[in-house]
Write a structure and sequence with these properties.
The structure is a homodimer of 191-residue chains. The first copy, chain A, has 191 residues and is an alpha+beta fold. Chains A and B meet through α1 and β8 of A and α1 and β8 of B.
Chain lengths: 191, 191
């Protein structure tokens, strides 16, 4: 950010009074601009014992296989966003079954939320952001050609859980942050 | 948004080519500005059979009781953000036990994520954003003076689950969107 989106004046990077994170500050109109992590919502579209994957037509990772997922929009619920992405990327209509995986990627400031979802029929074809869409049995999954770690883990968990017959929520951190420690600095008590 | 944060030129609201959502578009430098839902991370700090609540010192809902929670920052994991907020608002150190509740609030473009968390000791006192911090038994919870629907539901679920002895993840939508239907409009297939 170079300019204030409210008044158009140049902003400076600094820590506002009473805050402890650097922000983009507009000294002209007083606006403090906050940036926040983004949510990527997606699903595992299930048809019988197969899963639907999409081959990416866009960067990053063009040409690699992925689960339908994308940035949640304002005004959506998580489940709605996941269904919309499935429709956009694979022209597939799904019913959300359950929240299945939540990944924090602090180095990218992203949170991924995946659902297990049932395809309502066997109809699907690539949307504008996909080169190809295809149903895969477990032994057919292109493990070496998956787009992202989040997709890899979601698929691994899915097939492992399916073997045990019990699907559980998976909640994991991905990336260098996992080991970072919270600095425990209690404010001194007034008492 | 009135001005482009990249180049400072005025922006216009419009639907970019290949998109179907209105965005803030800069015709001067070509930047499309996206807005996304925000994540609020928080926890239910447990000490024995009591829960720690904070009375809000800030608007909205100043004076009402809440669970420690706040906007997730860039570079954080969900669990880290929840622990940080507990430290900031109640000077309480917690260990995250499990993901407990996920709420979509589409009318506010917010996603709330609450964890069950164990207090590491009985030490706590109000941070800058709290007027008061206090441990509550179930029968002491100020149900009529809670800050937000998300807090109300999290507490209701917690005590109900505790009675059954089985804590499960709660995933709910709050607000007018819940009933909205996805417009099923598959693109025509090229085939």
């Amino acid at each position: 950010m170079n300019y204030c989106s409210e008044c158009g004046a140049p902003v400076r990077r600094g820590v506002p009074a009473g805050d402890d994170h650097p922000r983009d500050i507009c000294d002209s109109c007083g606006t403090i601009h906050y940036r926040n992590p983004k949510i990527i919502a997606g699903c595992l579209p299930v048809w019988g014992d197969r899963l639907l994957l999409c081959r990416r037509a866009i960067d990053p990772r063009r040409g690699y296989w992925t689960l339908p997922a994308g940035f949640m929009e304002e005004g959506e619920t998580l489940a709605y966003a996941a269904r919309r992405e499935a429709l956009e990327e694979a022209n597939v209509v799904v019913e959300i079954a359950a929240l299945y995986a939540v990944f924090s990627l602090p180095h990218l400031s992203q949170v991924y939320v995946f659902y297990r979802a049932d395809m309502l029929d066997e109809s699907f074809h690539p949307g504008a952001e996909s080169l190809e869409t295809r149903l895969f049995h477990e032994h057919e999954i292109p493990w070496e050609e998956l787009s992202f770690e989040t997709v890899y883990r979601s698929l691994r968990h899915y097939f492992a859980d399916r073997r045990t017959g019990r699907f559980q929520l998976h909640h994991e951190d991905i990336g260098p942050f996992s080991q970072r420690l919270l600095t425990i600095r209690r404010e001194p008590s007034a008492a």
